[in-house]
Design a protein that fits this description.
The protein is mainly beta. It folds into two domains: 137 residues, Pnp Oxidase, Chain A; 83 residues, no CATH class. The chain has one helix and 18 strands. Strands 1, 2, 3, 4, 15, 16, 17 and 18 form an eight-stranded antiparallel β-sheet that branches. Strands 6, 7, 9 and 13 form a four-stranded antiparallel β-sheet that branches. A four-stranded mixed β-sheet has the order 8-12-11-10, with no helix packed on it.
């Protein structure tokens, strides 16, 4: 009975080294969640030997290349860090408040203090929109009509002429790890050329009791993209390229037939 493959398959990435070249002592395999599609391309350069006639008399295989890509829908911090960036990661959440409710500017002292969810801490102003959809202007002090000022604790001060108006305040805030125990974050630093984490990639495609299994023994990611759409899920994509591991292994494949 012939063997076929169907579906996007499953892809695991097992970290080997971080971006600084440090070996991962006890690597945790990470499943690339909710796979949408993927590909592994194996190609070689061909070198031809010609004589006086039109067609070559010999063909030799030159340099080889194995590249891959996948689209996935599950957002997972450990995957981004261990496969793409390979730098230090910590707990806690950095997020934003997009205000769709609005607040009314009170009388003296014309101030509104934002209250970030989950006992969060205000970190940055993202602007104030008035009830007509116009952005208000931020100033350092003494705001006039249509202007506002904000302190580093999220205290917004407006002009006396704007009392009673509804405003929409957008801002960034952080949540401590204790209040967001599953959250992750990392600041990617500017490392020297060549610095990148490596990982092993395992592609598994089962169908009707048979399977295809492909392992790339060492790989480095070369691209991560986030393409958003107005009315659809975010489906990130990352590209990678394989190379020989310290034992000289590049790819191991296995088929049921």
């Amino acid at each position: 009975m012939a063997q076929y493959g169907f579906g996007s398959g499953m892809l695991w990435a097992t970290p080997q080294n971080d971006a600084f070249g440090n070996s991962i002592a006890a690597p945790t395999p990470i499943m690339i969640g909710v796979m949408q599609e993927g590909s592994v391309d194996i190609s070689f350069e061909s070198k031809t030997l010609h004589g006086q006639n039109q067609f070559p008399v010999a063909v030799g295989r030159g340099k080889g290349k194995i590249s891959g890509k996948c689209k996935f829908a599950q957002l997972f911090g450990a995957m981004f860090n261990n496969v793409i960036f390979g730098q230090s990661m910590s707990g806690g959440l950095i997020t934003a408040k997009y205000d769709t409710t609005g607040s009314v500017i009170p009388a003296t002292p014309f101030q509104i203090t934002v209250a970030p969810p989950s006992s969060g801490t205000f970190t940055s102003d993202f602007g104030v929109i008035d009830a007509n959809g116009r952005p208000m202007t931020r100033v350092a002090s003494a705001p006039a009509t249509g202007q506002y000022m904000v302190s580093n604790v999220g205290l917004y001060t407006f002009a006396a002429g704007d009392v009673g108006k509804t405003v929409f305040i957008n801002y960034e805030y952080s949540v401590a790890a204790a209040s967001a125990p599953t959250a992750t974050q990392s600041t990617v630093m500017n490392l020297p050329m060549g610095s990148a984490p490596s990982f092993a990639a395992d592609l598994f495609i089962p169908y009707q009791g048979k399977s295809m299994k492909l392992r790339l023994h060492s790989a480095v990611a070369g691209k991560l993209s986030f393409g958003t759409k107005q009315d659809d899920f975010l489906v990130p994509e990352f590209d990678f390229e394989a190379f020989a591991d310290p034992l000289g292994r590049v790819v191991t494949w296995s088929l049921s037939e």
